[in-house]
Design a protein that fits this description.
191 residues, mainly beta, six-stranded parallel β-sheet, 19 strands, 3% helix, 49% strand, globular
């Protein structure tokens, strides 16, 4: 990026892509066109695996999934809880997601900053901050987290965790190599 960008619609990526945030911030406020995410990655129309590299060659690169979470949202279940994006990235490709030296933020209930449906992911020195939502969900995929920092505040539901593993067709697998993974006191006592 050459400057900070804020937009309502998310990005659909279905070709090999490198996104260098270059110390800037990409904010997506709704992303309704791509499952309410900032970025949705799928294999190409011809079935070719898609790899996405997200990095920041300058300090401070950030992706913000614009959304809201209020105390009233804690009693609301499902899609009506909160508003805006559910998270930064939904990865549905059989390729690889590689993220290095970036920060992700989300604040919508039921949301995950990264939802990995298939393929693999390697996160290196990634900082994830979630309010109401969660950090990363690995659903039938494989992820390696190297020296990441994840914080989660304001428990809303089962998605309010730093790291979760679930199963679509096959169980997800996560390997954690160092880092810090912290839930707030409220989150720890509520869920």
């Amino acid at each position: 990026l050459l400057a900070d960008i804020s937009m309502d619609e998310g990005l659909l990526i279905n070709t090999k892509t490198t996104l260098d945030l270059n110390g800037h911030t990409l904010t997506v406020n709704d992303g309704g066109n791509v499952n309410n995410r900032c970025i949705k990655v799928t294999d190409s129309a011809s079935g070719i695996k898609v790899n996405l590299i997200v990095k920041s060659s300058a300090e401070g690169g950030k992706i913000i999934a614009g959304g809201s979470c209020s105390t009233a949202d804690h009693s609301t279940n499902g899609a009506n809880a909160g508003s805006g994006c559910y998270g930064a990235i939904r990865f549905e490709s059989s390729g690889k997601l590689t993220m290095t030296d970036v920060t992700l933020e989300n604040s919508r209930p039921w949301g995950m900053n990264i939802k990995l449906i298939s393929g693999t992911a390697e996160l290196n020195n990634v900082t994830i901050h979630s309010t109401c939502g969660g950090g990363i969900e690995v659903a039938g995929a494989t992820a390696v987290l190297n020296n990441c920092t994840m914080t989660q505040e304001n428990y809303h539901d089962h998605a309010s965790s730093c790291v979760s593993v679930s199963s679509e067709a096959t169980p997800g697998v996560v390997t954690i190599n160092g880092g810090s993974y912290t839930r707030s006191a409220e989150a720890s006592t509520s869920g």
